[in-house]
C-alpha cells in the first residue's frame, strides 16, 4: 500500500474520534501537518501526546455514544472523512467492567455510523478493528477471510464493532474500510500499564519488571507511526470502488512472544533489568498474529 499524500489531505474536513489515543494522536498529528481541517471529538480532558497539534484542531466536546453530538459535529463541519478510533482498549479493564467497554466500543460504533448514514457528503469512513476480533478458533496467521470468533469482553467488543461496520456496508452501502492490526507501540504512549511503556520505564529506572503471564503468549507488534500511515494511505485509496467495503490486516508478519519482545526492548536500551515471570493464568487469547498479504496488492 502506497504512502500517504500531503496533497490529498490539503483542506479536507476530517472528523476523528479517539484522537487522544495512541493511534488517534498520530493520525491527528499527520493530518494537521498535511493541512487538513481536523475536528476531534473529546469527552474529557486527558493528557495529550502532542500539545501543539491539538492547538490547531477544532475540539467538539461530547461522548461518542451521544448520537446528537456526533451528528451535529458531522453536519456543522461538513465532514468528508471520518476516522472512528475511540475505544476502550485494555483487556483487564474490559474483564472488570464489560458494560463500559461495550458502551464505548460497540454502541459508539453504531452511533458514529448511523450519524454518518444521515450526513450527506461523507466519502470515506475508517473503522479500526483489531486482530483480537478474530478470537481463537481460526488457523494462524489470520487472514481477512478468517471468522470473527471472539469470546472475551474486549475481543467480543471488537468483533461486534467490526460486524456492525460490515452491516452498514452491506445494508446502506456506506463507504467504509476496516483495518485489523496487532498491538501498537511507539512514541506518545502515555499509558504505563501497557507492555512497552512499562518495560521502558522499568528498564531505565532499574525497577522490578513483572510479566503476568508465562511470557509465551504470541502477538503481532506494530509501530504506531507505521499503522497511522497505513491507515491514511488506505483512506486515500477509497475512491477506488473495489477498495470500499473491504477489510485489511496490517502486520510485519513477524510475531514474537511477549518475553522475546520484552528482552528485545531491554537489549535495545541496554538495561540490566531481568523480567520476573509470574506465570499467571490470564483470561486472554494465547496466540494471535496476522497475514498481511492482501494489502500488498494495493
Total tally of structural domains: 2
| CA-atom Rg in angstroms | 19 Å
Characterize the largest beta sheet: strand count, sense, and whether it forms a barrel.
7 strands, parallel
CATH class of the largest domain: Alpha Beta
Percent range for β-strand residues: 15-25%
Low-confidence parts: none
Write down the overall geometry.
Answer: globular
Give me the count of strands.
13
SS-based structural class?
alpha/beta
- Please give the order of strands in the largest beta sheet: 3-2-1-4-5-6-11
* Name given to the CATH architecture of the largest domain: 3-Layer(aba) Sandwich
Number of helices: 10
Properties at a glance:
2 domains; 298 residues; two-stranded parallel ribbon; seven-stranded parallel sheet; globular; alpha/beta
Amino acid at each position: 500500500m502506497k504512502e500517504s499524500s500531503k496533497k490529498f489531505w490539503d483542506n479536507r474536513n476530517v472528523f476523528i474520534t479517539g484522537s487522544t489515543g495512541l493511534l488517534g494522536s498520530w493520525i491527528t498529528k499527520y493530518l494537521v501537518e498535511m493541512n487538513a481541517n481536523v475536528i476531534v471529538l473529546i469527552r474529557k480532558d486527558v493528557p495529550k501526546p502532542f500539545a501543539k497539534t491539538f492547538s490547531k484542531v477544532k475540539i467538539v466536546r461530547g461522548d461518542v455514544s451521544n448520537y446528537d453530538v456526533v451528528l451535529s459535529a458531522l453536519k456543522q463541519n461538513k465532514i468528508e472523512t471520518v476516522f472512528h478510533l475511540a475505544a476502550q482498549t485494555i483487556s483487564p479493564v474490559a474483564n472488570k467492567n464489560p458494560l463500559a467497554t461495550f458502551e464505548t466500543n460497540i454502541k459508539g460504533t453504531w452511533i458514529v455510523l448511523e450519524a454518518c448514514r444521515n450526513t450527506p457528503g461523507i466519502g470515506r469512513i475508517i473503522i479500526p478493528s483489531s486482530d483480537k476480533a478474530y478470537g481463537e478458533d481460526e488457523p494462524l496467521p489470520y487472514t481477512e477471510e478468517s471468522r470473527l470468533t471472539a469470546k472475551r469482553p474486549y475481543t467480543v467488543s471488537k468483533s461486534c464493532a467490526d460486524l456492525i461496520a460490515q452491516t452498514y456496508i452491506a445494508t446502506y452501502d456506506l463507504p467504509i474500510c476496516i483495518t485489523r492490526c496487532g498491538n501498537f507501540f511507539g512514541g506518545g504512549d502515555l499509558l504505563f500499564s501497557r507492555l512497552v511503556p512499562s518495560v521502558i520505564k522499568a528498564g531505565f529506572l532499574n525497577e522490578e519488571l513483572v510479566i503476568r503471564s508465562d511470557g509465551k503468549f504470541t502477538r503481532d507488534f506494530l509501530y504506531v507511526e507505521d499503522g497511522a500511515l497505513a491507515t491514511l494511505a488506505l483512506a486515500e485509496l477509497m475512491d477506488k470502488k473495489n477498495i470500499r467495503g473491504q477489510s485489511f490486516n496490517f502486520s510485519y508478519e513477524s510475531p514474537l512472544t511477549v518475553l522475546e519482545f520484552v528482552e528485545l526492548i531491554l537489549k535495545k536500551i541496554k538495561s540490566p533489568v531481568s523480567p520476573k515471570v509470574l506465570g499467571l493464568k490470564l483470561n486472554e487469547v494465547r496466540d494471535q498474529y496476522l497475514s498481511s498479504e492482501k494489502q500488498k496488492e494495493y
